Amino acid sequence: MLLVMAMHGYAQMTLSLDSCRIMALSNNKSLSAARLQLDMARNTAAAAKTRRLPRVEALGGYELTSRQVSLLSDESKYALSNAGTLLTGSMQGELSGALATLMQQGVITPQQAQGLGSLAEQLSPKMQESLNALGQRVVDAFKSDTRQMFAVSINITQPVYTGGAITAANNMARIGENMAANNIDMSTQRTIHEIENAYWTVVSVRHKKRLAESYLQVVRKLHGDVEKMIREGIATKADGLKVAVKVNEAEMTLTQADNALALSKMLLCQLCGLPADTQITLADENSDSIISTTDSQDICEGNSVDNRPELMLMNDNVSLSRQKTKLTRAAYLPQVMLSGGWLATNPSVYNGFEKKFSGIWNVGIMVRVPLWNWMEGSYKVRASKITTTMLSLETDELREKMELQVSQSRFRMNEAAKRLAMTITNVANAEENLRCADVGFREGVLPATDVMEAQTAWLKAQSMKIDAEIDMKLSEINLKKALGVLR
């Protein structure tokens, strides 16, 4: 509701650091992409788990050919189709020779031989026709009619042993999911780091603007006092011109502070996903002090960087490289696969050539054993192990750099704390010095230049205090980011 009202100019938004962080995290494009990457990694991991399960596939096809399959040659077809003609012709010749031999031997008389020959001639056409028809039926039975082929099959495969390839693929998918989660964490910390820097920059500029306004009031009051003293003849025009120059400088400083505040708020609005011209007020703008003494108590001790998402990503890369080595080795190990299915064709060949679908079941086992590949697998495995070693060295180097970064950040925070304590003391001294200079100026003991010097020293002390407070706050944020605990 506040966002809608601000966009229509009805109200000015008041934002706390937590609300800015929430809006920045919901608006950041790289963080949204990282979340999508995590969703993709989860789907990839779920897909990898299915590789252990049986695969069921259905296939179907149709094929039209120009010629059908023939199990008989043309000579065989002719012989079978004319089997009666060929057989009876041969039998008549042999029967005539046999009757002549029997007649010569006196076994039968010529009249009997003539009778038997006449009987054979009478039976020959019927036998010839019957045998020819029988031969033709055999030829027809061997017609395959395979010009149009239909086929349907259902296959099931179950991996039994793949050399560890499936396990490695599942581990790689799981590591990819962890990497995506770490990438989200890294993008989150980067976004929080950016928004907190922008937030406290606005607070710093706002405090400097208030300081510039206070300084302008002080120098204007001094300018009015000096003008009165010039009219009374106590001060010279040179004193008045010097004070006027300070007034101009103070006005210029205030203008610069206004511009810096507008630009810093525009950047903060952009990071929060708000229009750049949105009128916002920060909850810490009007606080008396930017930082309190208890702000840095929750930072853990030591230089442990185990929570850094960048280091976790590098460790995941090392683990991923180890799994790639196992995957490479698995390609050169034996593989066992169970298979089964059902196949049906039309025409079918299981009861002659029938024009209908008929099929068979099948179950089998497939074993693939690489025998010789000229040490290709060994070379690839060695190269993959070298890659893993290189990544391990890079991870160790990154850890050392991160530990150094933590030490430097902690040193800068301690230095900022000391500088803040010194600036607080300097502000107290500058305020006392300004008070004394004002009293001396009113009593006529000190000239206006001493008051202006005291005002300049007070302005510098106050500005250094604001810088020290912001430096303390930012160094604390940098230390949390270096430790990986910026949440």
Task: Compose a concise summary of this entry.
The chain has 487 residues and is of the alpha+beta class. Helices cover 67% and strands 11% of the residues.
Write up what this structure looks like:
The protein contains eleven helices and six strands. It has helices spanning 2-7, 17-27, 29-49, 74-81, 83-104, 110-141, 165-231, 237-272, 309-330, 376-442, 448-483, and strands at 13-15, 55-64, 148-161, 280-282, 335-346, 358-368. The strands form two sheets. Strands 2-3-5-6 form a four-stranded antiparallel sheet, with no helix packed on it. The longest helix has 67 residues, at 165-231. The chain is rod-shaped and about 185 Å long. The two termini are 26 Å apart.
Overall outline:
rod-shaped
How large is the radius of gyration? 50 Å
Strand arrangement in the largest pleated sheet: 2-3-5-6
Portion in helices: 55-70%
Total E-strand runs: 6
Beta-strand percent range: 5-15%
Helix-strand makeup class: alpha+beta
Treating each run of at least 4 consecutive H or I residues as one helix, how many helices?
A: 11
Please tell me the overall pLDDT.
84
Straight-line N-to-C gap: 26 Å
Search tags:
two-stranded parallel ribbon; alpha+beta; 487 residues; disordered N terminus; rod-shaped; 11 helices
Write the layout of secondary structure elements.
Layout: H1 2-7, E1 13-15, H2 17-27, H3 29-49, E2 55-64, H4 74-81, H5 83-104, H6 110-141, E3 148-161, H7 165-231, H8 237-272, E4 280-282, H9 309-330, E5 335-346, E6 358-368, H10 376-442, H11 448-483
Parallel strand pairs: 1-4
Antiparallel strand pairs: 2-3, 3-5, 5-6
